[in-house]
Design goal:
Blueprint: E1 2-4, E2 10-12, E3 15-17, H1 40-48, H2 50-59, H3 64-73, H4 85-96, H5 100-113, H6 117-141, H7 148-155, H8 158-190, E4 200-201, E5 211-212, H9 214-229, H10 231-257, H11 272-283, H12 291-294, H13 303-332, H14 343-350, H15 356-388, H16 407-423, H17 426-432, H18 436-453, H19 461-486, H20 492-512, H21 529-542, H22 547-600
Helix pairs in contact: 2-22, 4-10, 4-13, 4-15, 5-11, 6-11, 6-13, 6-18, 6-21, 7-8, 7-18, 8-9, 8-15, 8-16, 8-17, 8-18, 8-22, 9-15, 9-16, 10-13, 10-15, 14-15, 15-16, 18-19, 18-21, 19-20, 19-21
Amino acid sequence: MVSFDGDGSRRQGNSITEPKKRSCGCEKDDFLPEESFKSWSNYRKALLETKTRLKDRFLARSSDQLELHDMIDRSQNQLKKTLNWFDLIWFGIGAVMGAGVFVLSGEAAHELAGPAVLISYLISGFAALLSVLCYTEFAVELPVAGGSFAYLRVELGDFVAYIAAGNILFEYVVSGASVARSWTSYFATLCNHDPNDFRINVTSLTEGFNHLDPIAVGISLLICCMASFSMKGSSRFNSIATILYLTLMVFMIVAGVTKANTSNFQPFAPFGMRGVLKASSVLFFAYVGFDGVATLGEETKNPGRDIPIGLVGSMMIVITIYSLLSTVLCLMQPYNQIDQDAAFSIAFQATGMSWAKYIVALGALQGMTTVLLANIIGQARYFTHISRTHLAPPILAVIHKKRGTPMNATIIMTLANCLVAFFTNLDILANLLSIATLFIFSLVALALLVRRYYSTGVTSVADRNKLIVLLFLIVSSAIGVSVLWAMNVNLWVGYAIIAGVWFLSTLGLQLLVKQARNPKLWGVPMVPWLPAASIGVNVFIMGSIDGASFLRFLGWTGLLLVYYFFVGLHASYDASKDDVKTEIHGVSSEAVDLKTITATS
């Protein structure tokens, strides 16, 4: 393993070489320091061993000790522990509450649920809360920058973690670019202009990529500077902006109540239960973003106390605000008159409060600013931990000595956001959003069940085999319900049978398999029921996503595999073997020291 010390010296295993003098820029070893890339002959040899190495990486699982200590040590310096539960609550709210509630509420109420959109928000909020609980247990016991990537490395292995992380990073870049472009649109509304008035139209470029957005790039770079300079400063800015945003939301709720008409709540569920559930699938994406908060565990002063309060507390606040906003919206207008694109602005205008559209635009602008900040902070910390494992260039794992932030990863990920945001229209970006988030949430819930019920050297072979079969049935039954829903099958007997399989499998897991590990500090209640329910809900929501999104997911995963087979596999394999050598060397040194002490005494 190659790492760098604070004085610029290069560390190979346990030996330290003198710092190299260099004029400027980076060297090859900053990106590919592993033995497989030292020469072309080494690389050819590595490629010939691909099958053996893939088997090793596919079966290899990390450990809590490795993630909490060895991986962190590869970053030269430590991330500064400056955050407490108060910071995490506001980060959680700021990461989730963007413009989603303004964009999605109109469509869900008008087309899918009517006034029962309130129930839809509560259902999707409960589904999100299940994932929050699973993330919280992991984040308390593994408070590292890698978030779900680290959790999956420990429980499901290096290969699964890589595929998951590659997809979530893609989602981060696309959503970050989308938020940056939306920021320009809402800023234009606030200035009484068309969004394209603030963009540069280049007719020679392809349609969809010809409206260049310098404001989106500018706001992204500004937030990048803030995130790179100071985590505590970013936290203070986020707290102030989020408090102002919530104040505007409360004002909208109070103003809307003054124009409420209870007769607009009739009929309550005009599209039936199916419409309510369809709306829940759509509205679930208004709750996405909390997973980025889990990457802040390494910078939290007291993870065992602060992370549960921050994650669970922020989600409860978001669910409450969303439910109140949707209720007020449906009390102000009949559901069939709610505008699908600008629901709140038009609703206030229809009740004689035209000025409120500026409040909506300002609120959305503030919400998107905090979402963009949380996006950049989260993706940088994901990328930092991925680079620690050498699945990405290790130079991106470096933590700035003075600032205590992952400056290299923050800059690189922001540049990726800027490149996409500068050229790509919102319509195209919306279509690029994949199923990665739901995929990750499902895997984290599955990993939590593995963590509770399987431990090497503790779990018997019989229990391990039962665990595999029961987990397979839980996942398969969830997929079965999702497929029936996606095919618009109205045969409730089919749903009942498959749901029964899920229920009996989860009950079997509780009664037939002994838990191998109990949480040390904070744990998800009602295991295995809540994690199994999280898997079921996330997979069910996947059934509402269009087929093109699955094709994009498979296409991007294919590109990730190409990189993995030619670069990432060999880099991470070499790094893992260096770790083993280092551990053996450390044990040998301890043995020599013990002999010396014994002889002396």
